[in-house]
Write a structure and sequence with these properties.
Number of strands: 8
GO molecular function: mating-type a-factor pheromone receptor activity
CATH class of the largest domain: Mainly Alpha
Number of helices: 14
Radius of gyration: 36 Å
Shape: globular
Order of helices and strands: HHHHHEEHHHHHEHHHEHEEEE
Distance between the termini: 94 Å
Strand content: 5-15%
CATH topology of the largest domain: Rhopdopsin 7-helix transmembrane proteins
Main location: membrane
Protein name: Ste3
Family: Belongs to the G-protein coupled receptor 4 family.
CATH superfamily of the largest domain: Rhodopsin 7-helix transmembrane proteins
Transmembrane segments: 6-23, 35-55, 67-87, 108-131, 151-181, 202-226, 271-292
Length: 377
């Protein structure tokens, strides 16, 4: 099974996310940094899996699959929680008064962001073990895949978290939009007073990014929830579910290509980080600040690689006096040539002819040469 397009776009998506990373790091926006982390790892792991299992369904790296499958469980929760962190921060800034946000509030907001965007997905990864019937699956062409026994237990431990968090993020987004529209006249002053490092453009860009993530992510999470409910089975007991936990199931391409579950189980979840990575780059990777950052990188690289051009001294052009010009000699200079040759005077095609020779008029310290000419008909 070969899916070259997924390999190409996951690689491109991972690289695109690294370009605006320095700017976001300096901005200290924890929500966008968490989103970059989840999307980058999502693209990178899918990229590696598709290459390693390009045309194979063997099990060469079981520890790798243990890590990847748990990450895939927490990935939807991490993306949804990152969007919630972004919209929550926008509401906090827009609803603040002209008084700057204190450092204690900023630390508390950072702690809540880390709790939502990092700790909560790890908790969901841990809870997944409750409904994990065997170690993992390997699908030819796609690599490691999570194994889950769909039941009411899996709904509350795994699949329900992401859509609920996404809906909460959407509510915060609506509140942020209302606050922006109601206070848009003094909004720039509010942003400056909050000392958040944002202006109107950055605020709108963050709000648009979170909105697109919600619009794209909510259908995926709801689809997973509906699939979980439709395919639910009983959960007899812990011992029964984990009786053969060390088993690894493998699937050849000809076994699942004709199945409709192939799209919902494998293709769509792997393309979501790619789409969101491209959206993130379009919002933050082509801005004026980002383009200026790329220019600084290129200049640094050119200097490091020895491509810096050395400026050469430019010689001033020599001025040759023509007919009709007045020549002033510097102070204290000697005037040796009292007469100019006719060749110089007739340089412009013989239109002018000297009427008198050029003689210096000398005062105490200044010598001025005067040339009088008349036109010949």
């Amino acid at each position: 099974m070969h899916d070259a397009s997924l390999i190409v776009f996951t690689g491109i998506g991972a690289l695109l996310l690294l370009l605006p990373l320095p700017l976001q790091w300096r901005a200290r926006n924890s929500g966008t940094l968490l989103l970059i982390m989840w999307l980058f790892l999502g693209n990178l792991l899918v990229f590696v899996d598709c290459i390693v299992w390009w045309d194979s369904y063997s099990n060469p790296a079981p520890i790798w699959c243990d890590i990847v499958t748990k990450f895939f469980v927490g990935l939807p929760v991490g993306i949804s929680a990152s969007s919630l962190c972004i919209t929550r921060r926008l509401v906090m800034i827009a609803s603040s008064s002209t008084v700057a946000i204190s450092q204690s509030k900023k630390r508390r907001a950072l702690f809540i962001d880390l709790l939502l965007g990092l700790i909560l997905p790890m908790i969901v990864m841990t809870l997944h073990y409750i409904v994990q019937p065997h170690r993992f699956d390997i699908w030819e062409g796609y690599g490691c895949q999570t194994s889950t026994r769909y039941s009411i237990v899996s709904v509350f431990t795994v699949t329900l978290w992401s859509p609920v968090i996404t809906i909460i993020a959407a509510i915060y987004g609506i509140i942020a939009i209302r606050l922006f529209l109601s206070r848009r006249l003094q909004f720039q002053t509010i942003l400056k007073a909050s000392r958040s490092g944002l202006d109107n453009r950055h605020y709108i860009r963050l709000l648009a990014l979170a909105s697109v993530d919600i619009v794209l992510g909510l259908p995926f999470t709801l689809l997973a929830l509906v699939k979980d409910i439709q395919q639910r089975m009983t959960y007899p007991s812990w011992q029964w579910v984990h009786a053969n936990w060390s088993r690894v199931d493998v699937y050849r391409a000809d076994q699942y290509m004709s199945s409709g579950a192939f799209i919902t189980n494998l293709t769509l979840p792997r393309w979501l980080p790619v789409l969101l990575a491209i959206v993130f780059f379009l919002f933050f990777g082509v801005s004026t600040d980002a383009i200026g950052e790329y220019g600084r990188w290129l200049r640094w690289l050119r200097q490091r690689c020895g491509f810096d051009f050395v400026s050469q001294k430019q010689e001033l052009p020599k001025v040759i006096p023509k007919l009709g010009s007045t020549i002033v000699q510097p102070l204290g200079s000697d005037t040796k040539d009292e007469n100019l040759g006719e060749e110089e005077l007739l340089k412009d095609g013989g239109l002018f002819e000297p009427q008198s020779s050029m003689r210096p008029v000398v005062s105490k310290r200044v010598a001025v040469a005067v040339l009088v000419e008349r036109e010949v008909a």
